[in-house]
Amino acid sequence: MASALPRVLAFIRRAAMAAALFVPAVLAAGPVQAQDGAVQGAAMQEVVAQDVAVQDGPVQDGGGGADSPAAGTPGPANRLFVQALQLIRQADNTYDAAEESRLLKEADKLFNEIVTKFPDSPLAVQLVTNQFVGDFDFYEFRSRIRALVCNDALSSLCFLHRVGEMLPPVETPINAARWDWLSLAVAYQQLGDSGRAKEIMAPFVSVVRRGGAADSSGQDLFVARALSLMGQTPLALDITRQINDCSTRIYNLADIAKAAAWRGDGALTSALADEAKSYASSHNCAWELGLVAQTLLRAGKEAQARTLFLNTVETQFSKFKETRGDCCPPELAVAAADIGDAKLALGLLSTVQDENPWTIPAVLGRLAKRGETAMAVAYAEQVADIDTRGEAYAELVEAAMKRGEPATANDLMNRLNKLVEDAAGRRPGLLAQKAKAEKTFYNDDRWRRSFQSAINAAEKASNFVRRDIGAPLLAALVRIESGLPMLD
What we know:
Blueprint: H1 4-29, H2 31-35, H3 37-54, H4 76-92, H5 97-117, H6 122-128, E1 132-133, E2 136-137, H7 138-146, H8 156-166, H9 179-190, H10 194-209, H11 219-229, H12 233-240, H13 246-262, H14 266-282, H15 289-298, H16 302-323, H17 330-339, H18 342-352, H19 359-369, H20 373-381, H21 386-402, H22 406-423, H23 428-442, H24 447-460, H25 463-482
Antiparallel strand pairs: 1-2
């Protein structure tokens, strides 16, 4: 009983000090603060009570934000915390979006100051681990800070935030590839927020480094591909060269080469094309040769690409005649379009499109860029799936504009708009393709309204739709902003 009395008296002194600190601050801050004084005081008393509990154990020295038993005053971490709560309360009571944003950002600075200046304080630990402090939810506050980008509702960063909010959360520990979240990281990188990109990407990279994914389980494939798009070529290659599975190894090399070509690094593109060809040959890779042919073409090695492609097609058709199984890998259809053999490309496409619908816009867009527009449009008209047909139209609009054929592009825009109208705003993927086509066709910001409509439609859709629409929306946004596609 005697040992408890000093602690009780210390608590009373702390509560009195908290009240003494709060009353002048609240009165000086004006009417809004005065209304919130009771709530703020309760928060301060709760924090002080936490410190009393902490002092039942060993007392830490230094400036860690813990109370000083001798002085009987609140620690600096606690004072910063209460100041932050005051700012949040002010933000809650203003109608001015700019003022709300300013106040919340000031509060965020104070929370960061607690963590950086007083890392040994109980408050810092709670903030870093996203714990509740009383009834204050720091995780929810951080989400609110990120949502400030939507003060400009039509900004690309707002679009990214809203798409990210729709994505199913990453399970921990991470044990599976999540192309939707990796796409989000790539999108943030492309739009200039490298900090957010690293925050999303780091846990996936860590799993691969610890050996949490082996060979072709998918984790290594997607992580290296995302890294290549983010400019992290050495790390992407380090991951890739530890993989002994043909499909994953060749896919990664092809995609890293593609990203290098987009950056104008011809030497690296050529070296990776040769590496992919050598690996495929030494490991008897089969269907992956279509990817190797595409990579050789991208590196300017057209003669090698044609020879490899024709030999691969002959081998595949021979096996097809013998086994009557699946004819050909979808990558061959894309390679045929790259080489310019329209008849063969469409023939191969017809055999693979049901299982691999992504090949339809990929093949038709490539053919249109080589001047086979009429053939590509006729094929697109027969595509049953509305979203896939819309994506094909968007690719054809871009091809027509690049070839200087605005009349053809206008006709294709009309076809795409008709699909959107018939869907009555209920197909987010289709609306995203419309936005992509509008960027190419008009070359201004009117695409933003369409993309906003796409996100609105996704948010109103079923859980099933929201689960799967994230990556396509992000791919469309990256294509619009950078002019370059996400990887196939």
